[in-house]
Amino acid sequence: MLARRLPTILPMLDLEESLETTRIYSSVGLMGKGQAIIATRPFRSPHHTTSEAGLVGGGTMPAPGEVSLAHHGVLFLDELPEFNRHTLEVLRQPLEDGVVTISRAQATLTFPAQIMLVAALNPCPCGYLTDPKRECHCTPRQVQAYMGKISGPLLDRIDIHLDVPAVPYRELRGKVEGTSSAAMRDQAGAARDLQAARFAGRRLSNARMTHRQVKKHCALDDAGEMLLKQAMQELGLSARAYDEILRVARTIADLDGSENISATHLSEAVQYRRLDRNLFA
Ligand SMILES: [Zn+2]
Fold first, then answer.
1. Torsions phi, psi for 56 (to 5 deg)
2. Low-confidence ranges of the chain (pLDDT < 70)
3. S-S: 143 plus which of 98, 124, 173, 249, CB 3.0-4.6 Å?
4. Do residues 88 and 60 make contact, with C-beta atoms less than 8 angstroms apart?
5. What is the rounded distance in angstroms from the CA atom of residue 234 to the CA atom of residue 228?
6. Max Cα-Cα span within the chain
7. CATH number at residue 94
8. CA of 140 to the centre of ligand 1 (A)
9. What pLDDT score was predicted for residue 273?
């Protein structure tokens, strides 16, 4: 439910993005009848039985896959460990480069694939490992085998890991109103405006900063440096994770309207590396 609503809090597609996404959809005949343009961010949720070609693109007449159909939008992979491991590994390149390259004897084709990847998985095969109310009967070996289906390098490319506990029925029925999607979209838009100013109008967001840009735009004070160093050692994080934490911290600071990354922003970003903690514990 959360993943499905993500496109509603992302900034609206600008014309250029809209045209790029439209071009992909019309190339595979997926435009609705009478639809001239894709105006909303795509949300794609392929089933875990989807083939490699279906997910990243390919075939004898190479066609774009789900990762390109989600261009400028959200690709949601539910039950991540159920996907074919090799198929998931192929996702690493588009996640890194924002494009999919398909090589054939005759030619090399490139499809755009700038996506926000969202994936969901249970904490263990039965799903109750972290549930305070139900008992999990999985053995540590079963839990390890389940989590082991996702490779470290793929996990390493996912910036934010979150625990989403079951919501009690009473709360679902409750009338307490959270922040509306419209208000969240405004906040996201304001943060994107800051990023547009930071990158001098180039179409770049914090998530796509290079290592050099991270160094330039994510300066920490001494307390922040200490905190990050400690987290790196304790969690055994990679150099890639180091940059990712800083990119996320930069975004948290932007959402807060803060020019500097404070220790609070940074520790929130570190908290989102939950699965590294599990894997390396
Ligand atoms: Zn279990």
1. -105, -10
2. 276-281
3. 124
4. no
5. 10
6. 60
7. 3.40.50.300
8. 9
9. 85
Instruction: Tell how far the Cα of 279 is from the centroid of ligand 1, in angstroms.
Output: 16
Strand pairing of 74-77 and 43-44? parallel
Q: If you measure from the C-alpha of residue 212 to the centroid of ligand 1, how many angstroms do you get, rounded to a whole number? A: 42
What is the C-alpha end-to-end distance of the chain, expressed in Å?
A: 30
Residue 57's DSSP bridge partners are: 64
Return residues with CB closer than 5 A to ligand 1 (ion).
Answer: 124, 126, 129, 136, 138
Final residue in a domain of this structure, among 121, 146, 161 = 121
- Give me the number of domains the chain comprises: 2
Three-state secondary structure call for residue 118? strand
- Residues 224, 225, 226, 229, Cα dihedral to 10°: 120
Q: Give the predicted TM-score (pTM) of the model.
A: 0.90
Are residues 108 and 197 located together in one domain of the fold?
Answer: no
Q: How far is the CA of 165 from the centre of ligand 1 (A)?
A: 14
Q: Which H or E run includes 102?
A: strand 99-103
In a domain, 112, yes or no: yes
Q: What is the rounded distance in angstroms from the CA atom of residue 184 to the CA atom of residue 186?
A: 5
Q: How far is CA 32 from CA 15, 26, 41, 91, in A?
A: 19, 9, 15, 27
Do 193 and 108 reside in the same domain of the chain? no
* Spatial CB neighbours of 60, under 8 Å, sequence gap ≥ 6: none
Query: Which structural domain, as residue segments, surrounds residue 75?
Result: 2-121
Give the pLDDT score at 277. 55
Q: 106-124 burial string, b = 16+ CB within 10 Å, else e?
A: eeeeebbbbbbbbbebbbb
